[in-house]
Amino acid sequence: MTLTETRGFRAYKVVGRRDEAQDVVTFTLSAPDNGARAGHHLIVVAPLDPGLRREYSISAITADELEITVKREGIVSSWLHETIHPGNVLTASAPRGSFLLEDRDMPLVLLSCGIGITPMMAMAQEALGRGREVHFVHIARDRAHHAFRKQIDLYRDNGLVSHVTYKYGGDTAECDHVGEFTVDQLREILPGCAVEVKICGPSRFMQAMYDAAVELGVARNHIAWEAFGPSTLVPRTTPNERAVNQDTSGTAHSADTPETPLVTFAESQVTARWDPTSHSLLDFAEEQGVFPNYACRQGSCESCMTRVTDGEFEYVDEPFEAPGEGFVLLCCSRPVTDIELAI
Ligand SMILES: Cc1cc2nc3c(=O)[nH]c(=O)nc-3n(C[C@H](O)[C@H](O)[C@H](O)COP(=O)(O)OP(=O)(O)OC[C@H]3O[C@@H](n4cnc5c(N)ncnc54)[C@H](O)[C@@H]3O)c2cc1C
Ligand code: FES
Description:
Bound molecules: flavin-adenine dinucleotide, FE2/S2 (inorganic) cluster
Radius of gyration: 21 Å
Strand order of the largest sheet: 1-2-5-4-3-6
Order of helices and strands: HEEEEEHEEHEHEEHEHEHEEHEEEEE
Strand content: 25-35%
Largest sheet: 6 strands, antiparallel, barrel
Distance between the termini: 35 Å
Helix content: 10-25%
């Protein structure tokens, strides 16, 4: 049996390829009946030795085709750039992921930096198609690295409000702003705080935009982000929220709530009560100063697989492949009972 048949992967015929910006290429894949939604990604398999898997967000969706847009960085992205052309077949998963648009009747604000633009392109396409008001803030190094310029112009014709910053120089005739993108600029651009916000880019950018959106009054459950691998953000509470979370005796709720399971990281000799505001055991471990391996934080790569020596857990996001008995993917699971992890 082939990999395609046994592990939920499919063979996609590559039907197009174009340069999108410096070091960035879009691949068009034939994908009838794809069921993809904006924000989904594919897990692409590179048949190297050893075989490697990487996630790529879907940048455009039609009934018969999907596009992924890849920045040349390391092994797999370079393999795609150098090897994959129309006529080739690419092995990849079905569209998957949880970074999806909500069905909300409010303006959508897309905040991206660098290659973090890819899921935003599909989201802009889907939201404009549904008649939503869309504000798209993007930060690129400069004009040469600004992907999707022409497509964004087309979306502008359909009502998209776009704001482009070139961080490392350019002409203000080519963009809206040159230099750092600041919280004050976000404040000016946000059409009020009753908005849905999506963020994708490097950690520092995502953290700054998340903190700024919260500070400007956007509800936390209206803000979502996607990390491309090691970058991530910590949804820190504001002083106001901390004050609200204190009861009259001054006891903070959350990590000390007695009913939550005890989580023990055996090798690290750390035990703490599960904090229900943590998304996953991986986030919780990091909050406790324990730093497991990880790469995708999406249940795809198995980098965070850890042995469970006692207790039970559940998956909050469905992993691409659940590991065998006695192991857990920390990035997409939570404890159900007191639990001991080998790490
Ligand atoms: C949900 C999700 C969606 C994603 N969507 C996209 C997308 O739409 N487009 C996109 O381009 N990427 C996307 N990514 C990132 C992508 O999955 C890969 O992580 C990325 O392409 C790098 O993989 P690689 O094999 O090319 O690099 P790797 O070989 O894994 O290297 C990763 C980084 O480490 C550096 N590196 C590697 N080896 C060394 C070394 N020896 N010393 C120093 N530095 C080194 C490389 O330069 C590179 O920057 C996404 C990731 C996730 C989790
Ligand atoms: S970090 Fe990739 S599966 Fe958990």
